[in-house]
Batch of 2 targets.
Target 1
Amino acid sequence: MAPAGSSRWCPTPQQLKMLEEMYTSGIRTPNANQIQQITSQLSLYGKIEGKNVFYWFQNHKARERLRLRKKLTKQLQQQQLYHQLQHNPHFLHYLDSPASPAFQHLSCYNPASANLFPQAGIHDEGGKQVTNYTWNIDIPEKMDKNKAIMRMYGSDWLMMVDVGLPLSSLPCYSMISRPPLKTLELFPVTASNLKEECNNINNNNSNSNSSNSLSSVSCNITPAKVPLSLP
Amino acid sequence: MAPAGSSRWCPTPQQLKMLEEMYTSGIRTPNANQIQQITSQLSLYGKIEGKNVFYWFQNHKARERLRLRKKLTKQLQQQQLYHQLQHNPHFLHYLDSPASPAFQHLSCYNPASANLFPQAGIHDEGGKQVTNYTWNIDIPEKMDKNKAIMRMYGSDWLMMVDVGLPLSSLPCYSMISRPPLKTLELFPVTASNLKEECNNINNNNSNSNSSNSLSSVSCNITPAKVPLSLP
DNA sequence: GCAAATTAATGATTTATTCAAG
DNA sequence: CTTGAATAAATCATTAATTTGC
């Protein structure tokens, strides 16, 4: 819970629980649409903004990785891990990929069809020994470009709040009382921008996963001319 | 110039020139307001989005740093730099701080009043010797928190496009044909967001330097630590 | 000259690091 | 000590320079 004049977001237990479930369900780097959905869902349980969701996943992923790395290093020092890895070199893979098949449409790549090339090595870094495990993931084809979280930087953020629904299959959604879906308010877009986006779509349409055209338009209002008065 | 179906932004010569001038004028990490202003200005010379501006400054800063670092390393190997540093340990400071006093109101911290604590050291990193120079910049008081570019992530992005004016004193503005002033169109903002922003203002108003309260929200705290590591 | 092949620049993302609130 | 927030570094990916063989 966030204190009244708090400077930073403080997740409610409910929010935290849902976030964690989404994480264990396989969500790692939600895109703008997903973030918007998650945010509006979680906002029913307390104050929250999109950036909080973004940061949470970023931090959580990074720190889980750290924890695991630390743990592994310890285990390595204390024995046997090496054999474990040799017998099942993929068992770490879940770190960066969806854990549940239910979320393949969220992460936009299918681990089953990806080729893994595990590598492991030990080297020196600043005096202390470090163990690196690297998996080169060969993704079959170039997939949905819209994943980019950075898209939120642009003014496009505005447009990204429309549509989106696939979140409904999350375990946490069935566990909690399902809040009513909200309709999001869209801002007008210039004709030229729309045309441009359509071109992009034509270039990139590899996946026909999208349910309606608006969602695929995604979202960009280029600041065509955001008028500003400069003194 | 950007090819028709190009996947990435390609700055026009005009845009590039202006960006470089802004950089040499001292802009390093523009905040949301500044990015929005820059974007709408540069959009007169070609297609551009806020994120392009953001990325450009981030990349340019980082790569300038790299270039300088490399140059210095070379000089070090080839002679005398060490003495240079000892005689004027601050001469690297411009890397992350405003170059021109005209932009103190943009960066919101006055280098003149900052205390610098230069440090230099050599240590081992992964086998090869590394020299680090670090300047700890002691900022007099905790200043405006709103500097964060990350604010653009949140829905507050909307809020940030208002106000803002100080860009006019840039050299590049006087060099190019001055485009006609436009009136900014504002999007509706929810009451809660407004309230929030107001709270932030109330919490952080330490400096009375600003002419109006809204514009003062948008300033920059340059990093409290300007670390340089020489490979 | 002029493409195909390489290499260098640089736009865009991701990951690591750091700061600071609580 | 944990973790939200922010920045910097590393990395990926595409475009532009350039080299090369013809």
Target 2
Amino acid sequence: MRYGRRHLRRGYGMGHGWWQGRFRGCGYRITVPREEILSVLSNTSEHLSAEEIYMKVHKTYPGLGLTTVYRTLELLEEMGIVIRIDAGDGRARYELAEGPKGRRHHHHLICAKCGKVIDYTDFIEDEKELISKTESGLSKKYKFKILNHEITFYGLCDACK
Amino acid sequence: MRYGRRHLRRGYGMGHGWWQGRFRGCGYRITVPREEILSVLSNTSEHLSAEEIYMKVHKTYPGLGLTTVYRTLELLEEMGIVIRIDAGDGRARYELAEGPKGRRHHHHLICAKCGKVIDYTDFIEDEKELISKTESGLSKKYKFKILNHEITFYGLCDACK
DNA sequence: TTATTATTGAAAATCATTTTCATTATTGAA
DNA sequence: TTCAATAATGAAAATGATTTTCAATAATAA
Ligand SMILES: [Mn+2]
Ligand SMILES: [Mn+2]
Ligand SMILES: [Zn+2]
Ligand SMILES: [Zn+2]
């Protein structure tokens, strides 16, 4: 297994991405596959599947295995660094979570035909009100500890309708 | 393949469920497997998986095949009679859609640990406002034809937290 | 009844994701 | 720098939900 770190370009000043601290803190190691996968996620606005990420990384780093992509995504999701999205077409899609270095809070429009996922941040203010009100009401009534929410609209994108 | 229609009890006055008209209208045939599957869905408030439906029907009608459950659910979803829910644990769950004979409009609380799905209808009025406003804004901005929406809260149920 | 053909169930096939396991890379300590 | 401990990796095999195939059978209209 040849990692070949030598000629890989990275952002964030020579191998010190914002996420490296969090990895260290959890006792996880910083590896080239992990750097590459995070690099792909950082440089796209799409909602990529594991295989799509695999193929993108594969171009510059052919040694990567699909297994590692799945494992890394699982880890990143557990750490709250990425979010998994289910567009209804049997395969999960991923994107960087909101946060200082990630995107900001948003929701999705999903095309029922082609599976396209569109981000939207409109009406977030009005949403916040409803959500916080609903959240406190529900957590009391159902004795449920709410961790996050999702608002999704399903329909047909411009190309599909 | 023995259907054994004889001793099966049905609701809705001897084999004339509310859905039979819709089936006829689409040229679909009314069969015992379909009756049984719809009967299970009509008599539960749970969100059952294909296999759970299969097992429930199996008690009174052992001839049923799991394949038929999947096929029937696909058909019912396409007809808008059932709704498919993804609770994040690799298997789809189903429930009767809203409507005259189905449930009323509601959303879900999903336990991230045990996968339990809880229905809620609280704050639907406030929601309606936000949703219709958001919907018209988004469909214009993104040229998207919105067909339906989903609001889901993820967290830990009483038993799991 | 009878003919037509939609529907069914069993078995095989798919396909995304997970597991296994031997090899290799990362890291902290010497 | 060197080295030992062990976390991470990749290939291949396994899994598990869902689909497909196909010959047999049931539902429907005539
Ligand atoms: Mn997004
Ligand atoms: Mn429900
Ligand atoms: Zn589309
Ligand atoms: Zn739970």
